[in-house]
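Hey Z.,

So I finally got round to the flavin-adenine dinucleotide thing we talked about over coffee. Here's the setup:
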Amino acid sequence: MQFDLDEDRALLKSSTRELLEKESALADARTVIEESAEGYDKALYAQLGELGYGSLLLTEDEGGMGVLAFAAVLEEMGRVAFPGPFLDLALAVRLLSQSEAPEAAEWAERAAAGEALVVLARLDATSGSPTRFTGGRVQGTKRFVPFGAHADALLVETGEGLVLVPRPGAGWNAVAQPTIDHAQRFAEVRFDDAGSLVAASDAARTLLEDADRLGAIGASALLLGLMDRSLELTVAYTMEREAFGAPIASFQALQHRCADGLLQTESTRSAVYRAAWAADETPDDAGFLAAVAKAWAGPAARYVCGQAIQLHGGVGFTWEYDPHVYLKRVKTLEQFYGATRDQLENALQSRGL
Amino acid sequence: MDLHFTPEQEQFRRELRAWLDANLERSWTEETRDPNHDADSLVELRRVWQRKLNAARYIGMGWSEEWGGRGASEVEEAILQEELTRADAPQVPNFLGISLLGPALIHHGTEEQRRRFIPKMLNCEEIWCQGFSEPSSGSDLASLRTRAEPDGDDFRITGQKVWTTFGPWADWIFVLARTDMDDRYGGISFFLVPIDQDGVEMRPIRQITGESEFGEVFFDGALAKREHLVGELGEGWRIAMTVLGYERGAATLAKPAEYDVQLDGLVAGLRASGKLDRPDVREQLGRLVIENEVMRSNGLRTLAQLASGHAPGPESSIEKIFWSEYAQRLSDSALDLLGPEAQLATRAQKTGSDVDWAYQYLWSRAGTIYSGSSEIQRNIIAKRVLRMPTA
Ligand SMILES: Cc1cc2nc3c(=O)[nH]c(=O)nc-3n(C[C@H](O)[C@H](O)[C@H](O)COP(=O)(O)OP(=O)(O)OC[C@H]3O[C@@H](n4cnc5c(N)ncnc54)[C@H](O)[C@@H]3O)c2cc1C
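And the result:
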């Protein structure tokens, strides 16, 4: 038995950390989050594509490195609150590369190379009336499409299956849906566009199940990175800040809060890496373990990143200081990729309950 | 990363399961519900069980062959504890001797001491208890005041120990006593003391469960022979602290296995009462299920670290807090979800897979106190892992 990453994945993780520290340290990430129109650094995404990050989530046979490597990279991205559609893009690439439709392969390649942005459009605006695909056209409205306004193509879940819709000449009929988390830009997209089926209902269901599972593991890995770094920043701050003539880190109430933070963080690490490893190695229980990881990681990260603000005091409530960036990311990630309550239900069902 | 057990470890598990099938006649739950048993007969039953395990060389498995072990790894030890828990086997009476004193003698004792004490510890001819805590020294153990004064070659012990688990049935006690009043750590020594002598009085203490599994021990000039001093004079603290660290790993898989059994009981109860489909119930149940699985993930990680030769870091304090606080959440929630019916049955009236939730509700309060309370564990994490300063 061995918990540490093997040499290749450990190297990938450490070089990702170096790359992100150089190209997207938290201060740079914040500039992109707060000032860019798209909400991500396009040039950096192109660079990631060139370096092969776009196809990371594919299996080793398909030229990727698998789920464990993917989780390791996302943990690093979480640490710097890396903005943009990295997770969404990777899910789309994986999905497209599993489809047998002729145009899917080409889009998969372009998306993996960082040349095209493709993401999934899942959530119907009105529940009970699904988006339809009839006569070669997609009709309906999707909400909370991540980076939907800027996508080159959308993979739309419809009653008839999964449909690839390239951006129409006039652009998307999209309205921004700004949440508190500017690192992930959502849009409501109205469709009345031509598309092509990449997977019919049954096949689509299998592909989407896989995407759900990997989305849950990926989001949990991001949450792990977010809470890990948030705790580090918080402990460091309590060592510097003095009150009543002593560093506030010497107060036991705060020590215990930080100890609980470590418990939450390290337990998340155990759960996330076990789930990621299982997705590569023991697929039978990977669904259960993915639900466990996500159901745990959301509330855990919310606790740690919430305490980060509390332990910073007044400065923690300012836009200037960093803790809020983490708190905001955490809420998005907790609500999407299988919200906590849904994952609890998934966990029970995958145990036959 | 690799969380698979090796083929040898899987083989060990299969053999163990077969052995348990053949040798465990009744589960511990059934035994405790047998009205013909009382506290003493249950201890005798546990003694017989330990002898069976020992004859099959499942006791002290990690020790060298010379001392009755197999030189087994921490992973095998964890598998053993997991399977024993799953099979609902009785706990062996000498668990304190085997987990704490055995390693102390093997690492710090004399050849003479090992020969004299280890075989009888393994076959449960002599039951051991642990005399560390005192009325005024629990979390702050190093403040202990029980003294050992020289008497010729030997020592006379005076003072009081308390919360001494299995004391009411024990033949021997390993005692931390002061041989120097001024040196806080270096003034503590480690003695082996027979209980059946003038100068030692053992009184059972009634616990919140109504049982008296622990007791208090009064020493009034009790004799501790020179040859029963473990290590050198003044080495007691160091020995005690290293020995407490040897327990690492053993419970990592047993705890989640124990709670899996309880969760199965909870599900059965919810199903029987028609509540399993209620969304609020499912949410609470789901949370309990996933938390136990996270606990298992922590355990597998600790084991994997041990197996690849890393000393476990913060994991052991995290695991201790996690399982002990989880046990309280689990029994609390079970009583709430199942309702007052779940309280009614006493141990003897219960049947089948029922869990005695009222008992668990009470017993789970102990785990956050003994072996370093939750607060002490959090202090350890804050100071040793996060390096936060002392006030
Ligand atoms: C079921 C059971 C079995 C036991 N078996 C044995 C045994 O076999 N042998 C043996 O020697 N002992 C045994 N003990 C004793 C156990 O080790 C002590 O109870 C424990 O160390 C706590 O000490 P205390 O009871 O003196 O509580 P105290 O140390 O007085 O603690 C009281 C409260 O104060 C908190 N506290 C103390 N210090 C700090 C601090 N620095 N920071 C924050 N909070 C603090 C504690 O966490 C606790 O909540 C057993 C206890 C129980 C409950």
